Automatic annotation (TrEMBL):
Pfam family, one: Methyltransf_25
Listed InterPro entries: Methyltransf_25 (IPR041698), Methyltransf_Superfamily (IPR050508), SAM-dependent_MTases_sf (IPR029063)
Domain Methyltransferase positions: 258-355
SUPFAM superfamilies attached to this UniProt entry: S-adenosyl-L-methionine-dependent methyltransferases
Name used for this protein in its record: Methyltransferase domain-containing protein
Transmembrane segments: none
Gene3D superfamilies in alphabetical order: Vaccinia Virus protein VP39
Molecular-function GO term, any one: methyltransferase activity
């Protein structure tokens, strides 16, 4: 049986260096968030980096007597550099498009980690995360048609390469099996695979990976907010008015102290009428985990010359305010991106006795 070593400290070291393993964040096809020339150059650099650092000594240390999957080291470097670059540009600008200096920065961070830890450790972390994605999907679905598994269409739709090598390696380790039924082939977890998933989940949970993963998913799907709002206004033309109706329903009044969670670039704060409802005699603290979104919101604020709003970087699960600090705590479309066991008690703590907590979410 192949068992990953305890990688908890290595996961923390990876976070300290500022690299992330989040391939879905990068949209890795050449039509994703990197232009074709940059994508090709990064692919070449990843291949050369893996060729230099994936030595026979490292292979034996990491895989012992198991054969080395040929493409995985190169793919690992490629995906880690790409997702790190996207994460960095999002932190700095709120956008997701990557340029060459960001690729250089990401590559330098990966190089630093390899010097301080090892290339084998980097690969182990990548294999831990990707095997968790695969095993968790199999645990959820029970089984996946072999063709869909190899394409990644059910569980890793961002990949532009076959997962056949990963499937063969997982089968060799004894974590998955391929069964045939009615002329069709399906992939499912073995008992050893269920145990491997449990161990990986425990390691990733202790290292805080799942909270980070939730943040990456939010960035990936919803942080192109300008385009999203434009599409939303076309598909759901009643949304702007519904935001205003929500504020009225919650009962926001002039002079209130309001906490808005998940403010993004201010669609509720400004266009939705929250600032107008509170008026200059009140105060709004608007919080979002994205510094890029906050930068856009502050640009709106300056153009509108509204000084009774304070924008703050933070997360709904833990905020630096005294209990009962707000008359109203509200937000739209943010709760499902939070850890509900932490965010809801925090909202309850922050609202004054007799105050109001409001969240507008879709129930469909």
């Amino acid at each position: 049986m192949f068992i990953f070593p305890d990688l908890s400290n290595d996961l923390h070291a990876m976070q300290d260096v500022g690299i992330v393993i989040s391939p879905w964040l990068a949209g890795l096809s050449s039509e994703g968030r990197l232009d074709a020339a940059l994508y090709s150059d990064m692919s070449t650099r990843a291949r050369e980096f893996a060729h230099v650092h994936w030595t026979e000594e490292e292979r034996v240390r990491v895989l012992h007597h198991f054969p080395s999957p040929d493409r995985i080291p190169q793919i690992a470097v490629h995906e880690i550099v790409a997702s790190t670059a996207v994460y960095l540009t999002h932190k700095r600008t709120g956008q997701l498009e990557v340029d060459e200096p960001l690729i250089d920065d990401a590559m330098n961070r990966v190089t630093q980690f390899v010097k301080e830890q090892s290339f084998g450790t980097l690969l182990q972390l990548y294999m831990l995360v990707t095997s968790w994605e695969n095993q968790n999907a199999l645990h959820h679905f029970g089984e996946i048609p072999e063709r869909e598994y190899v394409l990644g269409s059910w569980h890793r739709p961002w990949v532009d390469y076959s997962l056949s090598e990963e499937l063969m390696f997982a089968a060799l380790l004894g974590n998955v099996e391929v069964v045939e039924r009615d002329g069709h082939r399906f992939v499912r977890l073995t008992e050893e695979g269920e145990q491997a998933l449990e161990r990986a989940s425990e390691t990733l949970e202790q290292a805080g990976y799942f909270k980070q993963r939730l943040q990456f998913l939010r960035i990936s799907q919803f942080n192109l907010y300008d385009a999203y709002e434009q599409v939303a206004d076309e598909v759901w033309p009643d949304t702007p008015q519904q935001r205003k109706d929500f504020i009225q329903f919650v009962g926001v009044q002039p002079g209130m102290r309001v906490l808005e969670l998940g403010c993004a670039n201010g669609p509720l704060t400004f266009e939705g009428g929250l600032a107008d409802a509170v008026q200059p005699g009140g105060h709004i603290i608007a919080v979002d985990p994205s510094t890029g979104m906050l930068a856009r919101a502050r640009t709106k604020q300056r153009s509108l010359q509204i000084d009774w709003i304070e924008f703050m970087n933070g997360r709904a699960e833990s905020l630096p305010f005294d209990a009962g600090s707000f008359d109203v705590v509200l937000g739209t479309g943010f709760l499902h991106f939070t850890d509900l066991k932490l965010s809801i008690p925090e909202m309850t703590r922050l609202v004054r006795p007799g105050g109001v907590i409001g969240s507008w979410v879709s129930v469909k």
